[in-house]
Amino acid sequence: xxxxxxxxxxxxxxxxxxxxxxxxxxxxxxxxxxxxxxxxxxxxxxxxxxxxxxxxxxxxxxxxxxxxxxxxxxxxxxxxxxxxxxxxxxxxxxxxxxxxxxxxxxxxxxxxxxxxxxxxxxxxxxxxxxxxxxxxxxxxxxxxxxxxxxxxxxxxxxxxxxxxxxxxxxxxxxxxxxxxxxxxxxxxxxxxxxxxxxxxxxxxxxxxxxxxxxxxxxxxxxxxxx
Amino acid sequence: xxxxxxxxxxxxxxxxxxxxxxxxxxxxxxxxxxxxxxxxxxxxxxxxxxxxxxxxxxxxxxxxxxxxxxxxxxxxxxxxxxxxxxxxxxxxxxxxxxxxxxxxxxxxxxxxxxxxxxxxxxxxxxxxxxxxxxxxxxxxxxxxxxxxxxxxxxxxxxxxxxxxxxxxxxxxxxxxxxxxxxxxxxxxxxxxxxxxxxxxxxxxxxxxxxxxxxxxxxxxxxxxxxxxxxxxxxxxxxxxxxxxxxxxxxxxxxxxxxxxxxxxxxxxxxxxxxxxxxxxx
Lengths: 226, 281
Known about the structure:
The complex is a heterodimer. Chain A is built from eight helices and five strands, in the order βαβααβααβααβα. Chain A has helices at 24-37, 54-62, 68-92, 103-113, 117-123, 140-150, 169-187, 202-216, and strands at 13-17, 42-46, 96-100, 132-137, 194-197. Chain A has a single domain (13-216), classed as P-loop containing nucleotide triphosphate hydrolases (Rossmann fold, 3-Layer(aba) Sandwich). Chain A has a five-stranded parallel β-sheet, with helices on both faces. By secondary structure, chain A is α/β, with parallel strands linked by helices. Chain B contains eleven helices and five strands; from the N terminus they run E-H-E-H-H-E-H-H-E-H-H-E-H-H-H-H. Chain B has a five-stranded parallel β-sheet with strand order 2-3-1-4-5, sandwiched between helices. Chain B has helices at 38-51, 68-77, 82-106, 117-126, 131-137, 154-164, 182-204, 215-242, 250-257, 262-268, 270-274, and strands at 26-31, 56-60, 110-114, 146-151, 207-210. Chain B has a domain at 26-217: P-loop containing nucleotide triphosphate hydrolases (Rossmann fold), CATH 3.40.50.300. Chain B is an alpha/beta fold. In chain B, helix 6 packs across helix 7 (182-204). Classes of the chains: A alpha/beta, B alpha/beta.
């Protein structure tokens, strides 16, 4: 982080956002494959995946110790650690970084949990601005159906059970993630999200993503199928 | 922080989802750099307050249920940078604020905090954090009723620490690579921290206590300040509850305000009240 201008062309930072069950992880995996196939060097980093706060987060979640503020700060610490070790050095050396969830996840979730949105913005003011932020937008019912169809159980914090919205996990999930969607929608313009309709077929979403990403590399004629 | 009047005061945007309207207790923080004798003074103060009948809850830096192990492991691994260092502290602090400090204040305890957000400000800023950023990160923190600052200078501190328990890696700021000599690094690092504390003493209205005095003398000075604060708060609570029948007591209240006992006390206490905000005056 010391010296200013990198010697190489800075790598691209591409992030995907959306609620659980929006299909963003599937899309970023397909994008990863495609970029690699085209000869780009790519690294992938995922929300809440650093070793630094893994234990604390796990304990906090398991014992339901987390408040909206500590939930937020643990994720900010995780992000700061990954930004330092997993994102900035790669961007500086010209490598593309793909991030499954970025600071907008924090903005949307933390606001939905009731923390002050201005505080969250200030908290993450050290973050690097992505070259493209894709927001996979799905109606809450579609997300619920996808998750119930694939998983045995909805997780406590994912369902916002800590907020006491409803004793029923599915109903709580619906209410909480509904709020998260509202927050994403609210900040879409502010942060210039590329909104992708997550109800369309997987391959047509991917074509849309690829044609936008291709432009980031100043390449043309890559969106073969569309 | 007048109970029932304006609610709690925060450094920034506060905790919008938390109920902070009726904090009956008193929040007193002790600040100062490593090895200055804070913990000893907190223990003595707690004992004295309890003998007087006050309920006291003590809380210390990095001692949260959520984060203490993680911070210990991270420090042992020496793999922190300025950002993660600051954010781990903030997480620990938030956990203690919401799980210990606020519940205790709601129940009317005196909360003694061994270090407060000022420790984070000092340590983060000497490591290169933006002072505006670190203050905004801790924007959810409650402004204390009184901050006692144990002030010393780096040379006195070095002798004191060497004479008692010895110097450690983090207290020497070895992560900042100020030099390979532990002693020199400790001196430089502590000098920088003390400079930050001295600046904040003005910014936040600390009550400064000379930490080079003997333990008993320091404690005597601390007790005088704390006594004045608690007396003052008792008067505030009283006057708040009298608000409802104020019209009936109009004359009596004027007499009370002019009474010789309370007037010099509040003048003497002026620096302590800076931290609680001018709106109380």
